[in-house]
Design brief:
637 residues; alpha/beta; seven-stranded parallel sheet; 18 strands; 14% strand
């Protein structure tokens, strides 16, 4: 793998590498990438999907490579600017505390000031939890475009220091969401480069001058890119941003200092218009009748009563900025203008649906009680865009993952979905001894899942099989679901059974985030964790804590998901077969990811139990059987 990566870099070509668990793919791409970056004065971008892998790369693998190459090369972790404290904004917030905050929030500001004197890199991740800094307070002190600039902020400003580290670094680690967000605006960034810089002209780049990129966990990039090249307008986010400007109940906000009766009127008008807009939008698209998600197909599907109010407020703030003499105050006002303009443009596009031939639009509910509405769009087919921006630029793009192939069909499916048809390919199997380390149990006697089967027979059988399976491994299991509803129902049934056997039961969505759930699972050997979508991939639990992965259902994507539905329609319109060309290969990739959670090291052992009888009864079942490690012994019951 390292040789293939080195060749791709030397040839300025693209490469897809499927490397089974245990290959050591991080070192296999880091070592040639770092050597090439140092020898040719290039910048290596390493992008991942999960925080876990970013931390592993930055704190474990990169130090290993430094030692192996005997080179103290520079590396930086790139986060969005809102993750960093800005001392200029902190100072302004303290000066305006009476306009912005209540007494408890003002105390948080002083705690932040004390922390800022010795805050490491000054990022949100380093903030001591015991300080209890709220989202509202952090939003007033974190870096923002117009205020946090090299001119306004000194070199000790955490964001400016982070930006300098990234500019100077030979290796930059970031996540896919940020990478594709930056890639989507890369033309604007490149336009800011010196037009007389011949090197910048001659060398194609992605997001930095003279860079190349390695995308790890690349099986996720199609959907991440689709969303990052789309739009999002959240009711909760907009409401929060407008209340930040001025809250009529508390009479505090970032514009309280500039308050005039006219300005306060425009702010309250925008707040009222936002509330009414989302109320009407929810009614007009009949969101509550569609179980929290509805596709938007008709242009001008609701009336735009929001843009005029945002425009009036934006114009008023802009006029204030033009006459403001204080440079920092003017920058703060211009930052507000930019945000209001972005909201206004997004509202207009999400109502016009002007890109409906290439994008899918939908509305969905969010929040603990589904009380907030969010409008979204996503690119239906990213292949043309990524082919142009990633794989046929004359620069090096390397994609790697443990699962890029759909079993016996190679990587052609993945390559076609992301526009990487011209890339070189390499498949390397896992070095683990699956014959000794893994057993596979297939529940051939399980009733088929509803609606094909009888739900009255299915659920008791599923519960019985899960219980039998947990006894076999004494807990220590992931139970993977494709439906939140079924998972919650099974959790209620399994709770007394797990209590009886002394197994802590951890359930996704029970109030703990993914990281906390995983920590509890690892720390309490014997635990049983019930999870849906996000636990099928990117989870690494080596050792005896995870000794059993129970797959309740083949992970076919729900056709009611607007992006899935639009992709299937697109395939059908092009003369393809939506099931064969999309649903089946997507399920195979996710299935391989789920099964791959079990054996994470050469000393791991465990059981895979498959509780979907379609694996043995349907024509496509053999594809899933083929996707399993061939050497692992199998038992059919």
């Amino acid at each position: 793998m390292a040789m293939a990566v080195a060749a791709a870099l030397q040839n300025r070509g693209s490469l897809l590498v499927e490397a089974g668990t245990g290959v050591g793919k991080s070192l296999a791409y880091l070592i040639p990438a770092v050597r090439y970056a140092l020898e040719h004065d290039r910048k290596a971008i390493i992008s991942t999907h999960t925080i876990n892998l970013q931390e592993q790369l930055f704190h474990k693998d990169i130090p290993t490579v430094r030692k192996a190459l005997q080179s103290d090369f520079s590396a930086a972790l790139l986060k969005g600017r809102a993750n960093y404290l800005c001392r200029t904004r902190l100072k302004r917030a303290l000066e305006q505390a009476t306009d912005l905050f209540n007494q408890a929030e003002t105390k948080q500001l002083h705690d932040l000031l004390a922390w800022s004197r010795d805050c490491g890199e000054g990022s949100l991740a380093e903030l001591p939890p015991e300080l209890g800094i709220t989202r509202k307070v952090w939003a007033q002190v974190c870096s923002e475009n117009h205020v946090c600039t090299p001119r306004n902020c000194g070199p000790d400003c955490p964001y400016q220091a982070a930006r300098r580290r990234v500019d100077e670094a030979q290796v930059v680690v970031l996540n896919h969401t940020l990478f594709f967000g930056l890639l989507s605006i890369a033309e604007l960034t490149r336009a800011e480069q010196d037009p007389f810089d011949e090197a910048a002209e001659q060398l194609p780049s992605f997001i930095f001058p003279n860079d190349f990129v390695i995308l790890d966990e690349a099986h996720t990039i199609e959907t991440v890119a689709a969303n990052q090249f789309g739009l999002s307008l959240g009711e909760a986010e907009l409401r929060y941003d407008l209340l930040r400007l001025y809250n009529p109940h508390t009479r505090k906000g970032s514009l309280r200092h500039f308050a005039t009766p006219k300005l306060l009127h425009y702010i309250e008008e925008a707040q009222t218009a936002a509330e009414e807009f989302f109320r009407c939008a929810r009614l007009d698209c009949r969101l509550d009748d569609h179980h929290g998600c509805v596709r938007l197909r008709q242009p001008e599907w609701t009336e735009d009563i929001l843009s005029p109010a945002l425009n009036a407020l934006e114009s008023e703030v802009k006029q204030m900025a033009q006459v403001e003499e204080n440079e920092v105050s003017r920058a703060e006002l211009m930052d507000i203008v930019a945000r209001l303009l972005a909201y206004r443009n997004t509202v207009a596009e999400l109502i016009r649906l002007s890109e409906a031939d290439t994008s899918v639009y939908w509305a969905e509910t969010e929040g603990a009680e589904q009380q907030y509405t969010t409008l979204r769009s996503a690119l239906i087919n990213v292949s043309d865009t990524l082919r142009e921006k990633l794989f046929e630029t004359g620069n090096t793009c390397i994609c790697t993952s443990a699962t890029l192939s759909t079993g016996d069909r190679g990587m052609g499916y993945f390559a076609g979905r992301v526009g990487a048809e011209s890339a070189e390919t390499l498949q390397i199997g896992s070095p683990f001894n699956f014959a000794e380390q893994m057993r596979i149990v297939v529940a051939r006697s399980m009733p088929p899942p509803p609606p094909a089967g009888d739900d009255d027979a299915y659920r008791p059988a599923l519960f019985d099989w899960i219980c039998r399976s947990l006894v076999e491994s004494d807990g220590r299991a992931f139970v993977l679901f494709t439906s939140y509803t079924l998972m919650r129902d099974m959790a209620a049934l399994l709770r007394p059974f797990c209590v009886e056997h002394g197994w802590p039961l951890l359930v996704q969505g029970d109030g703990q985030d993914r990281t906390t759930l995983l920590r509890s699972f690892k720390d309490n050997v014997g635990s049983v964790l019930l999870g849906t979508d996000s636990f099928w991939t990117g989870v690494d639990v080596p050792g005896e804590a995870l000794s059993h992965v129970i797959v309740t259902k083949i992970p076919f994507e729900s056709p009611s998901n607007p992006l899935t539905e639009a992709r299937m329609e697109d395939i059908t319109a092009r003369g393809g077969n939506a099931f064969k060309d999309y649903s089946l290969p997507e399920a195979l990739l996710k299935f391989r990811q789920g099964v791959g959670r079990l054996i994470r090291s050469k000393t791991d052992t465990g059981i895979i139990t498959l509780l979907d009888s379609r694996i043995t009864s349907k024509f496509y079942g053999s594809r899933f059987m083929y996707a399993l490690p061939a050497a692992a012994p199998r038992r059919f019951e």
